[in-house]
């Protein structure tokens, strides 16, 4: 449905096959044990597409901003506790005019990554409205994670780390600050969500519950970083 980043998608390989089509085939055909749907939500221009591209391809989409039209998705298979977990990640358009399109996809998602831009106050102020929409349209037990993106733009920051953390705590959701540009915490955010979903799906009655907050905190400690998580 989406036509975003057409220039990227249309790159041709030497034999004329679209690189985008080849990548799609490879990710669709890759072996996996279990699959989950994850959606990226948040205002336009907070960096949803860039976070997804960073996670999927390890690259940063700089340059001119092209807003997503409708919805798009990418697959990535991760190894979680010896199992192959496929995340089908839906990248939604943040613009208001596409809301009715994206609402239709909420109920199929098992996890939602809700982004704001740490340099844009309105994107942070709108998080409550996004959470209201999520409660209206998504599954009751959906995994939600709040991400404050663009931490590389420290000089332009208007939302303090503590403000993001406080809001996340209020709603009982995990929180991290990310940068699609540098890649900080992007992989960790998706991995934490994949682990939570995998543990939920395979949990035995007497097994201790996977704690996503504790997992994020211990991973951050291992990497020697102290901020950016709850
Ligand atoms: N410096 C910096 N710029 C970023 C980062 N993430 C995204 N951007 C830039 O922010 C702009 C918007 O990024 P997108 O990923 O297209 O935003 P989006 O949330 O997908 O926007 P919609 O498709 O309209 O919903 C682009 O110009 C990106 O290059 C980041 O972590 N750091």
Automatic annotation (TrEMBL):
Entries under SUPFAM superfamilies matching the protein: P-loop containing nucleoside triphosphate hydrolases
Keywords: GTP-binding, Hydrolase, Lipoprotein, Magnesium, Metal-binding, Nucleotide-binding, Prenylation, Protein transport, Transport
GO annotation, biological process: protein transport
Domain of life: Eukaryota
GO molecular function, one term: metal ion binding
Presence of the UniProt keyword Protein transport in the record: yes
EC number(s) reported in the record: 3.6.5.2
Transmembrane segments: none
The protein's name in its UniProt record: small monomeric GTPase
Organism: Salmo salar
Gene responsible for this protein: LOC106601425
